[in-house]
Amino acid sequence: MYDVEIASGTKVFDVKVDANKGWMISSAEDKVDRDDGHDKQY
Fold it and tell me: Which Gene3D superfamilies is this protein grouped with (predicted)?
């Protein structure tokens, strides 16, 4: 499984992708204030 962050405008989405089939398993909007170590503001 791959964990991917996708930015679209001012929103960031956490997406999980099946590594074998390339199918999206889940997607959820990531809140920038969530301190998960992956969010970066430029």
Answer: 3.10.450.40
Count of all residues that appear for the chain in the document: 42
Query: Does residue 11 sit in helix, strand or coil?
Result: strand
Q: How far apart are CA 33 and CA 30, in angstroms?
A: 9
Q: Say what the pLDDT of residue 2 is.
A: 94
Mean pLDDT of the chain: 81
* Chain centroid offset of residue 25 CA: 12
Name the percent of the chain in helix, strand, coil, to the closest 5: 0, 50, 50
- The residue type of 28 is A
Q: How do the domains of the chain map onto residue ranges? A: 1-31
